[in-house]
Amino acid sequence: xxxxxxxxxxxxxxxxxxxxxxxxxxxxxxxxxxxxxxxxxxxxxxxxxxxxxxxxxxxxxxxxxxxxxxxxxxxxxxxxxxxxxxxxxxxxxxxxxx
Length: 98
Known about the structure:
- It is globular, with a radius of gyration of 14 Å.
- By secondary structure, it is mainly alpha-helical.
- It has helices spanning 6-14, 18-27, 37-53, 56-59, 64-71, 78-84.
- It has one domain (6-84).
């Protein structure tokens, strides 16, 4: 399972439209300016293709919006990389008591 992240949540909200997702990533300065729109859209496409190739039972554990987050890794700004960090709430509860 790919752990959820703030970036994954954003991708999930804009997942219906590549153009809307691209615009949001750029507006929030989560991806580097020099990265082409086509490279970014190719990342979205790869995530969708990989998701559709998974058997239905595995899809619930491997969301395409979090897969995009992983694929975008090399295109992210420093801010984008912070947004891509998995949420702490997924760490075992006992780690918070030490």
